Amino acid sequence: MKTDHLKSGIDRRALVSGLAALPVPSGSLLAQTRPQAQLQAPAAQDEPLPSWKDGPAKHAILDFVRDTTDQASPKFVPVEERIATFDQDGTLWVEHPIYTQVVYCLDRVPSVVAEKPELKEREPFKTVLSGDRDAIAKLSLDDLEAILSATLTGMPVDEFEAEASQWLATAKHPRWNRFYTDLAYQPMLEVLHYLRDNAYKTYIVTGGGQDFVRTYAQRIYGIPPEQVVGTMGGTKFGYDNNGKPFLTKEPKLLLNDDHAGKPEGIHLMIGRRPYAAFGNSTGDQQMLEYTGAGDGARLMMLVLHDDAEREYAYGPAQGLPNTRVGTFPQPLFGEAEKNGWTVISMKNDWMRIFAFE
Amino acid sequence: MKTDHLKSGIDRRALVSGLAALPVPSGSLLAQTRPQAQLQAPAAQDEPLPSWKDGPAKHAILDFVRDTTDQASPKFVPVEERIATFDQDGTLWVEHPIYTQVVYCLDRVPSVVAEKPELKEREPFKTVLSGDRDAIAKLSLDDLEAILSATLTGMPVDEFEAEASQWLATAKHPRWNRFYTDLAYQPMLEVLHYLRDNAYKTYIVTGGGQDFVRTYAQRIYGIPPEQVVGTMGGTKFGYDNNGKPFLTKEPKLLLNDDHAGKPEGIHLMIGRRPYAAFGNSTGDQQMLEYTGAGDGARLMMLVLHDDAEREYAYGPAQGLPNTRVGTFPQPLFGEAEKNGWTVISMKNDWMRIFAFE
Fold it and tell me: Which residues contact A297 (CB under 8 A, 6 or more apart)?
């Protein structure tokens, strides 16, 4: 299968450095399915943003909502134009040591090989099956694309959704030993709810696969499938043996929803410029620029991971350790200062990171 | 500019036969801009579907809404899953003698040539400028694609939207001498409102250009840009001389949202299977099949243009005159009977066609 065009919006260099930290394969598909915790958000009548410390980040959000929802404000925004977009990995949930979707793809390899035994002795599947982390970390970009293609495409849409849902119900993050879906940031869940309580339509705009994120976005973030903008692959309409129509996921990239692809994806899927945009890395810069280029009040925010104790610390902005997964370099910090974007310090602005704390 | 991949979802054979009926170029861009009439829909408390005659088509709609919104019904559908999709050309508004978007493209040729004088003596632009209907009707498919590409791509997204809006505010349909946007079908506007009053999210799923239809869908149909699924072209993110970011429409086809492309577009943009789908031609068959393949109550309807007096009569189903613009062949009629889809007779089911009657 030709996979040149399947990139899934992930910075592929990032994969290589992040993979070494993984337990692979996790075998979690064999574990028992359990119900997942629902993260709770505050009711509308409560004080907004209870997990946020009083400070410039919290005030930027409160001021923006006040200015754009007060009919007497010169910056009032009509309800139908209230669009807010959120990057996912590193902005709404944990992205270290490596993107959750990549863990999924690697975990899926044994199942794919079980269905296609001829892959067992073929690279890169053989290396993934070996569980040799060092060897996996050395896989080439073409190898990684072959893994993404084999695990994310070629199956009916419904089958993919069922497989991804099953995985999410069992796989756990190695550091916290918790479901990945428990690792959404409580302060960001509060922002989502607060904006929705004020008639904002909240969208995810992610470099991750659109169909993957859709499988859990409603449950975790309260965001329905039609409000998930992600890296988009083609599907193919066809009929089964009984004449029943179905869609198959194709290894054809329609849009890499990262960097410049984010505003392009926003135009494609939403057709409006957001009033608020949240990100955490270079892949979000163009989305924030595009949002900020609109008239009136606009809110642009970047999450800085500066809390190694409660989550992770990486930049390399502000002298934080470097990373290739969710890079926040110093020039992006400079852009934020220049353009009036607010940088959220996980350490200083968030009273708690996760609902389970 | 290479235009192989720009097709705009229009059956190109249809263009050739329909073009002969057109006044080209209309020169309507020179006319004065006037406010357009807003089509009125009934308030929620009124009797639903007042422009529909009592009969099987009206009852199919009423029964579907009753069954899917009554909590006590075994066919009850949760609010968040209530999705209804509507083809546009020939289903929501007039598509004869030729698609409105094609009229727009031909009308735009003089402006494009004014900006690029080198095109004046070059085909196919020279022929379009000549106003010779017979010659225009004989343009090749490649010629027509060159016209679509030159008039629909290459400009900033905002500029395209402004141009299309200006055109819609001035251009008129030759038969009724009314704005194209006045030619929405009043009974279908009532269906849109009735479904929305019952918490259905209404989408347009059109073979026409997504960005073109978005320019008027909110005003005419009450459908916001993010609920318009159409033939999708790529955009390119960039910066102007002042460093301000903007998007340019590219001659790159992402999805031809017609025939099998309709369910593919629905999955891409909505990520859910509709509970109701409305169309009028072969291009809608797969959307109705995909809708009908779901569990529970599903509503599939096809508009049959059998009213030459008040609108147009074409099929060739049921002995109506043949056409290549919005073809409804007898086999599609057979599919409707076999699958339990309801065929709407414009003549017998609709008391009036337009709000202005």
Answer: A64, A67, A68, A75, A77, A275
